[in-house]
Amino acid sequence: MQHFTNETIDLSTLPKYEETPLTHPDPKYWRVIIINLFIFLLLIAIGLGLLMLFNESVSMNWVLWTALFIVFAIFVCLISRASFKRRGFALREKDVLYKSGIIAEKTTIIPLNRIQHVALNEGMFSRMFGLGTLQIYTASGSSGEMHIAGIEIEQAKAIKEALVQRLVINTKAENE
Amino acid sequence: MSLDFSQPQRQSAAGIIINGAYVAQHLVRAMFIPLALFIVKANKTALLYTAFGIIAVVVLAFVYGYFYYLKFTFYLNPLKQEFVIDKGIFSRKHLTIPIEKIQQVNINQGFLQKIIGVYSLQIDTAGADSKEVDIRAINGEIAQALRQHLLHGQRTPTANESDKETTVAVSTDAPLIKITAATLLKIGLTSNYGQSIALLIGFGYAVFHNIKELLKALDNDYGQVEQFVKSGFTLFSIGIVLAAIAVLLLATNVIRTFIKYFDFQLSKHSQSLLISAGLLTKKNTLLHPNKVQITEYSQNYLQKKIGLFKMSLKQAHAGREQSEKEMKNNNTEIPGCSAAEKNELLRMILGRLPKEGSTFKPNWRYLNLPIVFQVLLPVLIYGIFYYLIAEVRAYYPLAVAYFVITLILTYVGYTKHRISVSDAYIIKQSGIWDISQEIIEPHKIQSISTSQYPWHKKLDIGHVSLHTAAGSISFSYGNFTEIKTLVNYWLYQVESGDEDWM
To answer: Are B450 and A106 a contacting pair at CB < 8 A?
Structure first.
């Protein structure tokens, strides 16, 4: 007969996900965010400029519109900075954690034995700074997947390799 | 019967007709409105040409159907345990489906297929578009045998033969759940109001819009339709109109229920559940209990009075985003069953009856956002209009009624929202009118996410979502310390266990 135990679990002794130390994204990633923000705001500014040229009521109140735009730009920058500071991920022995959020603070946890596949995505600006985005997929579709942006590319490759190794071991164990 | 699926074979010869009719039907449907307009406006010679055109299209469709039939082959690769389909006339398509990925096999019979006496067979997999694998014309016997092969080949291939024998014997058993016409009537009268309302609104709008289009096309739209609608309002009192709508609603509900669930039978079929239903088209579904991700049962006030439950078995859908409709297709619904039948089914799917564990309820702040956006904001907007436009002032009793009703509904929703956790099950209760219980087993969890607003940090309030392959289950505004403990516990269960989620 196999060795079998069935002891009561003490909930307070379980490892606590909320106390896991997190790795924050590479500081260089902030520059990528700044570039993206700049492009986004530039497009809005161009749109606003065109409106001012062709729409009389907008060009009359140009001071108001410019002020609104500046307030919006500052607001977006502050929000992005706050959300950048909040981001972080951790690779534990049996799962991956990712914390993010613009207003609400969201933590997603994917157990390693539920990962379907892993992808490494290098965006145009991210590549300029040697960064990558790690995408982890589960069978639950878009709601449960994880996109960890701003990891240094070598590290990202290493993590991906480790996760894929785990996947192979898991599927082997399943087949046996 | 000697049925060998290891050699490539074609569909039943009736497939030529079915395929042709399918293509013709698509073509006609795509051209229906322009064609109808044309026929109404055209003179005789043009009509003649149109008739010839239509005949040509139909003939072409059947020629296409013939070649499609020639080029469509399927076989079962016994060595690799794969089901292979080759199809396509101009661009060939080679589909390979590993048998272990097959979730369910549907055998349906549409109207035309019923006349000819063939069936269509569809294969659902986790991760592929179900439309891809659709054998449109297949002999009934072959379809059943193929289904057995597909669903039981997943077990050890050597046990295949004996397995098949037993299932044939078992399949003659009395069905577990059988819905009579009287029960269907009850179901039609008590459930699915929301869907029928949406259907009626859509239908009403389509009729209104089409009549307008037709009148416009005939160049004599002077707003008769609007006039008619307006005069309708002055003729009837609103009470009669409401009563008529209610009757219409119940009638649509009953008719819909009958069409969809006529002769509903659920039976146990060795390891699987076999469900068949339908008035015009008979739909057969076979599914494995252990592939069900979320088991849901619900009951509203009226159903409670007559002891009727509605159940929904949610299976894994493809990893990518899917349309709402396709998600629905992966849910197998049992429109009505008694408490005993419900328990029997739960026992079959979950192994035993789930019992309530420790219950967690949301904080009263759960009410804040819905009250602001669904109760106060609309009333406020009405208030603004009240001051600006004199005509809307007469409707203030409606606004008061809206305020009271939505307030009560929001509160009811708050009192029903709760989650119950035991070591083997997580049960989420929610709903306002239809109170539903969603049951999942911890090992079906794919990932967990928690979230918290910054202003709830001091209050220790947070939210949690459990993502499964068949959708998510969320619990909002709970005690965040408790939620964190639960999350750690669930993670422990998922990560230490080696139970497969599918």
So the answer is: yes
The structure's pTM equals: 0.73
Q: Count of CB atoms within 10 A of residue B112's CB?
A: 16
Tokens of B221: 């739209």
CA dihedral A122, A128, A131, A134 (to 10 degrees): -10
pLDDT, tens digit (0-9, with 9 covering 90-100), for B377-422: 998 998 888 888 877 777 788 888 889 999 999 999 999 999 999 8
Inter-chain residue contact A11 with B489, CB threshold 8 Å: yes
| Residue B421 φ/ψ, nearest 5 degrees | -120, 125
- B288-362+417-496: CATH topology is PH-domain like (2.30.29)
Chain A residue nearest residue B444, CA to CA = A114
Q: Give pLDDT tens digits for B300-334.
A: 888 888 888 989 988 876 544 444 445 555 678 88
* Predicted-complex ipTM score: 0.85
Question: Residue A105's closest CA among B252, B17, B462?
Answer: B462
Question: For the structural domain made of A89-175, what CATH number should be given?
Answer: 2.30.29
User: Token match 């439950």: residue?
Assistant: B309
Question: Which residue is closest to A104 within chain B, CA to CA?
Answer: B453
Q: Do residue A144 and residue B447 have CB atoms under 8 angstroms apart?
A: yes
Q: How far is B78 from chain A (nearest CA, A)?
A: 18
Q: What topology is assigned to B15-170 in CATH?
A: PH-domain like (2.30.29)
Residue pair B451/A104 in contact by the 8 Å Cβ criterion: yes
Tokens of residue B482, six digits: 């408790």
Residue-range domain boundaries for chain A: 29-83, 89-175
Contact across the interface for A17 and B452, Cβ inside 8 Å: no
